[in-house]
Amino acid sequence: MSSPPKTLRAAGRYALPLALAAASVALSSTPKKAEFTPRDRAYYADPNTVSFVRPGLNIQIVSAKIASDGTISVDYKLTDQKTAPLDRLGVVTPGAVTLGFVVAYIPKGQSQFVSYATRSRTSTDGKVTVTQAAADSGGATQQVADGEYVYTFKTLAPAGWDPTATQRVGIYGNRNLTEFDLGTYYDDATFDWVPAGGKPAPRDVVRTAACNKCHDQLAHHGGSRRSVEMCVLCHTGQTSEPNSGNTVDFKVMIHKIHMGSQLPSVKAGKPYQIGGGANPDDWSTVVFPSDPRRCEACHDANSGAAQASAWLTKPNRAACGSCHDDINFATGQNHISGVNLPQVSDNQCADCHIPQGELEFDASIRGGHTIPQYSDTRPGIVAHILKVDNGAAGKKPTVTFTLRDSQGNGIPLSTLTASPNRVSLNMTGPTTDYGNTSFGPDVTTPGYVTENPVATGQCSPDGTCAYTFTHAIPAGAKGTFAIGIEARRALVLGAGTLQQQSTQYGADNKVFYFPVDGSPVAKRRQVVDISKCNGCHTRLSMHGENRNQTEYCVFCHNPGNTASGTPRQAINFSLMIHKIHFGENLAQYGATYSIGSSDFTDVRYPVMSDTGAAGDTAKCDMCHVNNSEAVFPIGLNAVTTPQGLMNPTTPATTAACTACHVTTSATAHASTQTDGKYGESCDVCHGANADFSVLKEHAGK
Q1: Which of 112, 549, 595, 680 has its CA 20 to 30 A from that of 577?
Q2: For 407-428, what is each residue's pLDDT tens digit?
Q3: Whether residues 571 and 481 fall in one domain
Q4: Element (DSSP H or E) covering residue 675
């Protein structure tokens, strides 16, 4: 008999059952499992292995109870990706499941959970010991059905426990399938109940979905804690960290982490750290990808959370002081500018800090979190491109566009002459790839030309304007070209008051495509979607509130363009965005990335790995759409890279991929697969259906 297949040899003690399963599957020619996507490692695994192993882990809590003597128990089920039962011990089904159990309650008159189980932790110098909320240890498990178990906690509810209080039990766990090269699966679940009967009223301020807009999948403590509902069971007011002395109460800790580098205490020189020893977790360099004044980025009013508006209606010293940590509420220092009013309890916070006052920038909660450029008092500016006439090769196109305020009133061009007011029209092409077209010897911007329509544009009172470019579309041009518009208005807030300040805001960029040779319109390929950018950034707006649509960004951030520096820095969009998001990972390779005075080497990408570490840049779909990262070629024009290893230019796909894969060996590999006559051969190994496809190599689990 010949040697068993490699997948069977790797299976160890499961070899015989796997062989039988394989024979059965082979006869039925089972297609690839629909429940796995190209983002999952199981999607690419041998179907026979997948059918036997049944990857996945789902924890479902059936019920929980507390007996009269304080004994706490929970009934739960373990299932795979298709809801079939799993053996907790990994005997009947592959992959043992390791679980942890937490139980807590909300005391009457309070709003946060208190854990029944606690533990002691001592600082590394042995001087400080604290008590922390903890998971249960030493309980007993009984199997009651296939995949169904009852866990009885060793921890008892104390004498006099309140049966009318809301209780929550949480289970977290992992299923290790690395033996089959399928990684480790994680899950958690919670269950709320009132032992005496009635509807539970749990803490429900922020939902996990809000976190996952940036983190993809919230994960921490090795990856098994995956929901806010689980986190708040241990991250309570009863828990602090002994080395730093910092509380890890959820509302305080999360606010401080997300404020990071903008914390007043950090700006004053005190780092924000949790943990001890030589390498504590230091959050002092965190830059929130949105504006931290946007409380609703996390406190999402549409999330379904019962207490989503608590930040607005129930201000308190702990939550507010976590961001405004230069306030000493006991003495009043820095509490209300010029007043220094002590605040010895939370009872009167809402007297001054009402949800919304009459003015922006007042002491109300919305007023105090006003972002100037998004003031409700701004008249607004809305731009549209209606048509392009005379848009043929060798001719000067005429653009018809509109500029109106938020109420639909026309904005005269004459009001946009003085900076920072402005209007700009930009032309580029062809859409097959930008960056190589010259619009004349007087144009110094590579691949595009920028013109200001204010002086010569002709407008009607309703804000409809026409402008003819002074530069022509190059003679002999082919394909589809594009014209985009940007516009900005100045705004003075609180005029005549002590809070007067100046700001500016921009219109959404619009792009209009037109053929220059009579061929059908072919828009530029879509690689990312601005809505995905705004999942983290809320409103991505750069260059003084001028540019805010990725479709428009690529006009200037094209393969031929560079930014200031010695030598100049490549700013092609794919290279630049990859390097910015790779940020702090660059340091381990001795690499940096800066544009002018902006150094992006400390950027911490918020997407979490399966084990809970931030900075997982392998999750390309957080930005990319339609698997665009796996579509070759990733552009046609070579990228100007004066600071790159393959300078002065780098082939398009190589430039995009080596933005993250920054080692010399990675560049050498790409170079050997590139020929001056035929170009790059990346798709041979890394194409969609190749052995080392981009999607497969970046798959999780």
Answers
A1: 680
A2: 999 999 999 999 999 999 999 9
A3: no
A4: strand 674-675
